[in-house]
Write a structure and sequence with these properties.
Length: 334
């Protein structure tokens, strides 16, 4: 089955010209057909290990959605290398003391709401892309490590805004990705613990010249804000070669968030060291009321105000149904 690209309706005296869309819209079955003979390198056990709590990713989802995506990304990486060689040929002897451009990591951004499944998407992409012989070194970094420490959030009165753009050390995050993208031998990032709901003091994640870097987070597609001098700075997304937005109805994401909170209450929150351990000591209804309040006062406003508006900046949008499975996809035209 061949994909049907979006075709705008013809203009008519009644409705006038119809603007074209910047995306090619594909159903799940149309997208799945694009995997051709790409082998499936993951087993059911590996998919189970990569799946996030509450997510329903299985081998069919990997085969239909993520296998074609890994093939597309492999083509993007190859095309980037080809373009770099073409530029080196163009520059010839005027490339300067550094000589021809050396290869730099291909950077992928993955954005979406809390509980939408972007972490699972990122882990699957990392596992699948690392199976391609052209780029075996694939690193994954989440932006959680760049959240301001809890003490600083409290001092600034931002604990109720945790996850909003202003709760991150955006300068450090952008500098980290810029260092990786520029080909720096090593770049380090802070490490975040979901157990203590804070950065781990003194711990750093070191990334050493990967072939591909995946950056996953709520606000990775945010446009740059003007600096104090009024000048517009580079945004994190300016360093991305490809980006994915994981999309779903807000009501569905809320339901997934509440289910995940309930599941964590029975598992990770049972650890006395957990920041949320206190919610295992109250009734389930009291705990869920806290989760609902958190969703409605923090996560949903952040989604509507900051995250969802960046959807149109993504190269690819994955649209999920109420069953947590990808139903259709939108790929930006070149």
């Amino acid at each position: 089955m061949r994909p049907r690209p979006y075709r705008p309706r013809k203009a008519s005296p009644q409705n006038g010209p119809v603007p074209t869309k910047p995306y090619v819209d594909l159903s799940r079955s149309e997208w799945s057909a694009l995997r051709e003979r790409t082998p499936l390198p993951l087993t059911a056990a590996e998919v189970e290990e990569l799946r996030g709590l509450g997510d329903v990713v299985d081998l069919d989802e990997v085969r239909d959605v993520f296998q074609p995506l890994s093939r597309l990304l492999n083509l993007y990486v190859g095309a980037t290398h080809g373009l770099r060689n073409a530029v080196n040929t163009f520059l010839g002897d005027v490339a300067g003391e550094g000589g021809p451009q050396r290869g730099t990591p291909f950077v992928i951004g993955v954005a979406g709401s809390v509980a939408v499944g972007k972490s699972t998407v990122s882990r699957l992409l990392r596992a699948l892309l690392a199976r391609w012989p052209e780029h075996p070194r694939v690193e994954l970094v989440t932006t959680d490590g760049f959240l301001l420490p809890t003490a600083e959030l409290q001092e600034r009165g931002l604990m109720s805004r945790k996850g909003f753009p202003e709760s991150y050390d955006r300068r450090a995050l952008t500098r980290f990705v810029a260092d990786v993208k520029s080909g720096k031998a090593e770049a380090t990032a802070p490490v975040y613990s979901h157990l203590i709901y804070d950065r781990l003091p003194g711990e750093r994640l070191t990334v050493k010249s990967p072939d591909i870097l995946i950056v996953e987070g709520l606000n990775v597609l945010q446009p740059a804000l003007p600096g104090r001098d009024g000048r517009t700075r580079l945004a994190l997304a300016d360093y991305f070669d490809f980006s994915v937005y994981v999309d779903a109805r807000t009501s569905d994401v809320e339901e997934w968030y509440l289910r995940r909170f309930s599941a964590l209450r029975e598992t990770a929150f049972q650890n006395p060291r957990s920041y949320f351990h206190r919610y295992t000591q109250v009734s389930e209804e009291e705990a869920l009321e806290y989760a609902r309040r958190t969703w409605r006062t923090i996560n949903e406003p952040n989604l509507r105000q900051n995250i969802a508006p960046t959807r149109g900046r993504a190269t690819l949008q994955l649209h999920k149904g109420a069953d947590h499975k990808v139903q259709r996809l939108s790929l930006r035209k070149l």
